[in-house]
Amino acid sequence: MKSNKIKRVLVVAAHPDDEILGCGGTVARLVKEGCHVCTLILGEGVTSRDAKRDRAKRGKEIETLKKQAREANKRLGVRNVVLGDLPDNRFDTVPMLDIIKTVEGVKKEFRPDVVYTHFWGDLNIDHRITYNAVLTACRPVKGETVKEIYSFEAPSSTEWNHPDEFQPDTFVDITGTLDVKIKALKCYGTELRDFPHPRSEEALRSAAKKRGSSAGITSAEAFKAVRVVR
């Protein structure tokens, strides 16, 4: 029996642009289909460029990146964006409980049915910590609203680890929203790279075609189901 309930979808990303790279096409499609989507970005995404974190030094860049994050998500149709301030590529210096509490706070307020987040085997340590925080925050206890959790792949992190253990089992057709994803990513002025970098437009389009061909469709984003309760 098909449910008429409007799904509430939470995307939890470590850094600004991860949410677009990992599931931007899917999110744009979900919004078109009437789903309510909230994006939580945990980290500020800038200060790892320095030997030591100096937030004051990078303050203007951080504010610019936050503005770009809001605009990028707006391109997808997402207006509910929560921006955290965890130290870029230094999540391991923050008590895990603090990160979990951040996810729990947004989850408690938004009450999502579905969560998309990073893959446990990514090269980037912030991605791995985000995954663990999400799983802890979404423990399958009585009253938990989250019924589906999916991991997305992040170009230049998932496939750069060895061994690459990302084995997707869920494919979303983004043929109609791939262009929206690319346009959203372009809101982040410094994140798109030149080909053959995995975060180049050409590589992203090729990756979408590759994932699509695995499922018999033109373009797709691929996910690993973590927990699905039906």
3D structure, described in words:
The chain is of the alpha/beta class and 230 residues long. The chain has one domain: Rossmann fold (3-Layer(aba) Sandwich), CATH 3.40.50.10320. The chain is 36% helix and 19% strand. The chain is built from six helices and seven strands. A seven-stranded mixed sheet has the order 3-2-1-4-5-7-6, with helices on both faces. β1 (8-13), α1 and β2 form a beta-alpha-beta unit. The longest helix has 18 residues, at 59-76. The protein starts with 7 loop residues before the first strand and ends with a strand.
CATH topology: Rossmann fold
What structural class do helix, strand and pairing data support? alpha/beta
CATH class: Alpha Beta
Q: Using the CA coordinates, give the radius of gyration.
A: 17 Å
Could you give me the name of the CATH homologous superfamily? LmbE-like
Unreliable runs, pLDDT <50, ≥5 residues?
none
The CATH architecture: 3-Layer(aba) Sandwich
SS strand fraction: 15-25%
What is the number of helices? 6
What's a concise summary of this model?
The protein is of the alpha/beta class and 230 residues long. It contains six helices and seven strands. It has a single domain (8-228), classed as Rossmann fold.
Short key terms for the protein model shown above:
230 residues; seven-stranded mixed beta sheet; 6 helices; 7 strands; 36% helix; 19% strand
Q: Topology, please?
A:
Layout: E1 8-13, H1 18-32, E2 36-43, H2 59-76, E3 80-86, H3 96-110, E4 114-117, H4 125-137, E5 148-152, E6 170-173, H5 178-185, H6 201-214, E7 220-228
Parallel strand pairs: 1-2, 1-4, 2-3, 4-5
Antiparallel strand pairs: 5-7, 6-7
